[in-house]
Specification:
Its cofactor is Mg(2+). Keywords: ATP-binding, Cytoplasm, Isoprene biosynthesis, Kinase, Lipid biosynthesis, Lipid metabolism, Magnesium, Nucleotide-binding, Transferase. Belongs to the GHMP kinase family. Mevalonate kinase subfamily. Pathway: Isoprenoid biosynthesis; isopentenyl diphosphate biosynthesis via mevalonate pathway; isopentenyl diphosphate from (R)-mevalonate: step 1/3. Homodimer. With about 350 residues, the protein is α+β, with helices and mostly antiparallel strands. It has 2 domains: about 1-185, Ribosomal Protein S5, domain 2, CATH 3.30.230; about 190-325, 2-Layer Sandwich (Alpha-Beta Plaits), CATH 3.30.70.890. It has 9 helices and 12 strands. The strands form 3 sheets. It has a 6-stranded mixed sheet with strand order 4-3-5-2-1-12. Strands 9-10-8-11 form a 4-stranded antiparallel sheet. Helix 1 (about 75-95) crosses helix 3 (about 140-155) and helix 8 (about 275-285) packs across helix 9. The longest helix is centred in the last third of the chain and has 23 residues, at about 215-240. The radius of gyration is 19 Å and the shape is globular. The protein starts with a strand and ends with a strand. The model is unreliable at about 50-55 and about 60-65 (pLDDT under 50). The structure holds (3R)-3-hydroxy-3-methyl-5-(phosphonooxy)pentanoic acid. (3R)-3-hydroxy-3-methyl-5-(phosphonooxy)pentanoic acid binds near residues 19 and 202.
Length: about 350
């Protein structure tokens, strides 16, 4: 039995613009997906999803997606568990040169699905790592990140950047610009997350921004303006001492850039009433800044606040179902048990 975990992430800056070659800075957070893998001889794959923050279920199927049983769970949940796990299995089989390998796979995730916290990337990263280790062919982190990106790319019909999968593999704060991915040394940041209980449709939201960008110059300019915000934020981060607590001035400046980034994402049509409500609740509670994280349309916001005010205020905000402090996950993918 091989057990591997990988973290989710928040976008400090840069989602959507990263799709068009601008840089982005996602940060891994201590909310993990844990994947347990046991090879099996019959070539079948059995997936059990235990704590996907929604109802658990189990399905067993052979190689072909057409062989899947007609189970009584929402398609979105079934796709989430099986689509990404299938893609991870394919990558692991290819990497280990074991095309007929079968597995019992169990997924336990603390990361809400489709809510902008990188749940699918964490499952794919942990899944490929666990499966290749179980086959005796562990990958180095660069190859793991590459293969995880390929898996997401396949499932999302090409609508994926390297941001989520690289961040989940490496941990910490990272910078992604096209194929160029690096880790950034940053101080611990006081992240607070608010979750509206919903989810956005990443493919649809990315397509919406693409269409605006094709039709209006303002949208292309907005995407570039987000790139400028990311570059400014990144230089603030790299100038700071990674081993000390961040200064109030740094948090204030990063927060201001987050507020602007949220406004630009709103202009691109990817915010929602509940995301805006949570962003304003955070700001009114004294957060240094707040923005949606991920594709938008619903899901999560991220705020910076070293005090408990934002977390408490979000708990009493009707549009917010859950709020929590999220520590930077300095470990990326991690072997838990072998
Ligand atoms: O909502 P998430 O965590 O899947 O993030 C999507 C981020 C986008 O920039 C909109 C798309 C991408 O693949 O980078």
């Amino acid at each position: 039995m091989t057990v591997v975990s990988a973290p989710g992430k928040v976008y400090l800056f840069g989602e959507h613009a990263v799709v068009y070659g601008e840089p982005a800075v996602p940060c891994a957070i201590e909310k993990r997906a844990t994947v347990t893998v046991e090879p099996r001889d019959d070539g079948h794959v059995r997936v059990e999803a235990n704590d996907l923050t929604l109802n658990g279920f189990a399905v067993e199927y052979a190689d072909s997606p057409n062989d899947r049983p007609d189970v009584d769970v929402p398609k979105r949940l079934l796709d989430a568990a099986t689509g990404y796990v299938d893609a991870a299995v394919e990558q692991a089989r290819e990497a280990a040169d074991a095309p007929d390998a079968g597995f019992d796979i169990s997924v336990d995730s603390e990361i809400p699905l489709g809510a902008g916290l990188g749940s699918s990337a964490a499952v794919v990263v942990a899944g490929i790592d666990a499966a290749t280790r179980a086959l005796g062919e562990p990958l180095d982190r660069r190859e793991l990140a590459d293969r995880a990106y390929q898996a997401e790319y396949d499932v999302q019909d090409g609508q994926a950047s390297r941001a989520d999968t690289f961040c989940s593999t490496m941990g910490g704060a990272v910078r992604v610009e096209g194929d160029d991915c690096t880790r950034l040394a940053t101080p611990e940041l006081p992240f607070v997350v608010g979750f509206d209980g919903g989810a956005g449709d990443t493919g649809q939201l990315v397509a919406g921004v693409r269409s605006l960008r094709d039709r209006y110059d303002f949208a292309a300019d907005t995407v570039e303006a987000i790139g400028d915000i990311v570059r400014q934020g990144e230089s603030l981060l790299t100038d700071a001492d990674p081993d000390s607590d961040p200064s109030a001035e740094l948090i204030g400046e990063l927060g201001e850039l987050m507020d602007i980034n949220h406004g630009l994402l709103s202009a691109l049509g990817v915010s929602s009433r509940s995301l805006d409500t949570m962003v304003w609740a955070a700001r009114e509670a004294g957060a240094d800044g707040a923005k949606l994280t991920g594709a938008g349309g619903g899901g999560c916001i991220v705020a910076l606040d070293a005090t408990t005010e934002t977390e408490t205020s979000l708990q009493y905000t009707p549009d917010c179902e859950q709020s929590f402090r999220a520590e930077l996950a300095t470990d990326g993918v991690r072997l838990e048990e072998e």
